[in-house]
Amino acid sequence: MNTQPIVENRIWQPEAECLPRPQLRALQASRLREAVSRCASVPFYREHFARLGISPDQIRSVEDVRRLPLTTKADLRAHYPLGFLAVPRDAVARYQGTSGTTGKPTWVAYTRRDVDHWSDLCARFLVAGGLRPEHTVQIAFGFGLFTGGFGLHYGIERVGAAIIPLSSGNSERQLMSMQDMRPEILICTPSYALKLMDTILNGDVPRDSLALEHAHFGGEPWTEDMRERIERGLGIRCWNNYGLAEVQGPGVSGECAFRNGMHIQEDHFLFETIDPETLEPLPDGEKGELVVTALCREAFPVIRYRTRDIGIIYADGDCPCGRTTRRMSRILGRTDDMLIIRGVNVFPSQIETALMRVEAVAPHYMIEVSRPKALDEVTVHIEMQPGLFSDSMRELQSVRDAIGSAIFSVTGLHMHINLVSPNTLERFEGKARRVKDTRRLVD
Ligand code: ADP
Ligand code: ZN
């Protein structure tokens, strides 16, 4: 565990974030009971509760959450567009949507109080990761239905910092603003930071013309090795935060100054881990699918939402920052993204980890999976670092070998390695799509 803070250790709402654990558990239990009563106005839950014989007064402890039904993305889609709305429409202050990474986007709704909570929950992780009222923050997340843009916007406003709501895309304008307006903080997906980093590293926008100190990344899986690359490349600190529209958007969990995983905002979200196959609960410390109950949401109160995100809730005790909330690992992958290669489960993030350990390669890659004959084949296309792309067959072969054995040591699988020239693979402005699986087409 890290015992030294990376920035000054600050806490936005110490009364909530540092609540002694017994009090926190009691608060969660009473908020769970309230959430169950709010859900009684949602037909999906009313029917389940009736079938299971559950009423709010039976919810006495946090453990009682296990008696409640799980909610899936398919359930939300089956009640499209607003079947989960728990308040009259005139009580709704905002509608947002999911990004639709895995199919048709779904709508979510917020009351005024939901938006108010959301702002503080975003402020919590931003302040933990270095945001101060005197800062200027450039938001390169889309402003629109995607929760990243407006969610973070109000969190920054709450802290009192200045916002440049640039929205996503248009890298030239992003970089121009970074030079002319000199924001200290950038908010985007890690993939978009990689794209901007290209222009900075090739000298078109000199690093010393920027005031950038921190970046807050979310919206997609990334690895510790990728963090290292971006921090080194840009000379900044990069912070990880997690959230999903179905339970709120960003602000569900985020890193503190000690960066020992992401603190879960447990006064607002009840987290469980389950085995995605058997649906059995798993103890803290074990890897599994994260299941989230939104304890305070009025407009869209989901219970035991199956996130399809795989992670670990840490079992080890207190963090030196003083928060009492449990922490979670990075998201290791989404169950939808998991590749089954010749019977072995592999997440793209594992391949990324292996690739980033080879110095000669750039942080841009694409994973192609096919089944030309009876067996799965994986080809990893990866860019060489500019300046290191060599004409020597022997040098190229040794880089290929290094990548191949790094991948083998992480995944236990042999993959084909295709080294490509710098700046030839696709770049992304939002969430990256780095896997091309053509097997589904021939199955
Ligand atoms: P969609 O499910 O359509 O992508 P969202 O825009 O709500 O909808 O995105 C939420 C998802 O983004 C999460 O379920 C998770 O898979 C991913 N995500 C968000 N933040 C992170 C993060 N810090 N690390 C890894 N994945 C993340
Ligand atoms: Zn901490």
Can you walk me through this structure?
By secondary structure, the chain is an alpha/beta fold. The protein has two domains: 234 residues, Rossmann fold (3-Layer(aba) Sandwich); 103 residues, GMP Synthetase, Chain A, domain 3, CATH 3.30.300. Helix content is 30%, strand content 22%. Helix 10 packs across helix 11. The longest helix has 19 residues. The N and C termini lie far apart (45 Å). The structure holds adenosine-5'-diphosphate and zinc ion. Adenosine-5'-diphosphate (ADP) binds next to strand 7 and strand 12.
Question: Topology of this structure?
Answer:
Layout: H1 14-17, H2 21-39, H3 43-52, H4 73-78, E1 94-97, E2 107-110, H5 112-128, E3 136-139, H6 147-159, E4 162-164, H7 171-180, E5 185-188, H8 190-201, E6 214-217, H9 224-234, E7 237-244, E8 249-255, E9 262-264, E10 269-274, E11 287-294, E12 305-312, E13 327-328, E14 333-334, E15 339-341, E16 344-346, H10 348-356, E17 361-370, E18 377-384, H11 393-411, E19 416-420, E20 435-437, H12 439-442
Parallel strand pairs: 3-4, 3-5, 5-6, 6-7, 17-20, 18-19
Antiparallel strand pairs: 1-2, 7-8, 8-9, 9-13, 10-11, 11-12, 12-14, 15-16, 17-18
Helix pairs in contact: 5-6, 8-9, 10-11
Bound molecules: adenosine-5'-diphosphate and zinc ion (ZN).
The site of adenosine-5'-diphosphate has 20 residues, from strand 7 and strand 12.
